[in-house]
Structures are given as C-alpha cells and as structure tokens.
C-alpha cells in the first residue's frame, strides 16, 4: 500500500516552540484522513473493552463509559501527513481510569488499539499511561464528528495522529510489541513528532 508523504501547505514560523519539525499549522482547519470506510456506529450497541494481559478484563457500554470520571485534554495534535493543529480540546475519559479498573499484569508492556473497522495500531504501555492518553467523544464541546473518529476515538496527542485510533473498541495489553496496520505498511513503530519518526528507518 502506498504511503502518503504529506500535504503541501504553508509552514508558519510564528510558534516554533510548538511546531514539530516538518509540520505546518493548519489553522482553523482539520484535514479528514482515514485508511478505511467511515462506519456508522450505533452507540447503543458500541462497547469498549480492555483485555489481554490484565488481572480483571473490563468492558463498558456507551452509558457506562460516560458514567466514569471525565477528563479533558487541551493542547496540540500532529499528523504524520505534516499538519499540526493548535489549542484543541477533547473530552472523554483518561485511559488511566480504564487501566486502573483492568489492572495490567506486570509483564504487560505494550498495547494494541483495535477499531470497529479492523484498524489496529501498537503503542508502548508507557505512552498511554500517566495522563498521556484518552478515549474521547467530544471535540471543542461538541460530539466528535464521524470523519474524525466519532462517536469515539483514542487520543494520544504526543504521538503522530495515526496512533490515535478512530472508532476505538478495544485495548489489548501484550508482553511484546506487534505492528499495527500502518506500522506493517512502512510507518514508524512509535511516531514521535519531535523526532520526526514518520517511517521505518527514521531515528
């Protein structure tokens, strides 16, 4: 599968401390990109599970997820296709809250995020703990649009945005790394924007 190496856009130097190398500020825009067809999810049938190497596998319905303590992220997001968006606000629940209920086993060091479409992406456990990741359903105070992963997506804003899996349904804890969809197709295993970890072979 071909790899898109980025949009052409105006690179704005006004905020060099917040703009990772090779990125441009998309301003008020938010490009819509996806590797699969956008699904129509019925929230009454949707569920979110945390399983694999955990002491207590968990599953939450839409209503049960919304009953958990809420959490909001305010900050920037960055896409491997070279756009960045400043000052975003996402609301949902911290992944820490879900993992606290599931109790990861000591040997769990990696996570595979699964979407209802079959999309997957892999992450070190340390990249979704300690207040670094959320399961979100609101953007700027409104329900998350379908094209951006609504009604619910993973949010891991310190990594390139393909790691923030749209239409999330499952977090699978593992004791070893295993490549997800884009990682099998040439993207970097981790995806740190500040290190420009875009593709396999990047530092």
From TrEMBL:
Reading the lineage from the top rank, the first entry is Bacteria
Tell me, what's a Pfam family for it?
Oxidored_molyb
Query: What Gene3D superfamilies does its record include?
Result: Oxidoreductase, molybdopterin-binding domain (3.90.420.10)
Signal peptide range in chain numbering:
none
Q: Where is this region: Disordered?
A: 1-30
* Oxidoreductase molybdopterin-binding domain ranges (all copies): 37-182
Q: What is this protein called?
A: Sulfite oxidase-like oxidoreductase
Tell me the classification of the organism that encodes this protein: Bacteria, Bacillati, Actinomycetota, Actinomycetes, Propionibacteriales
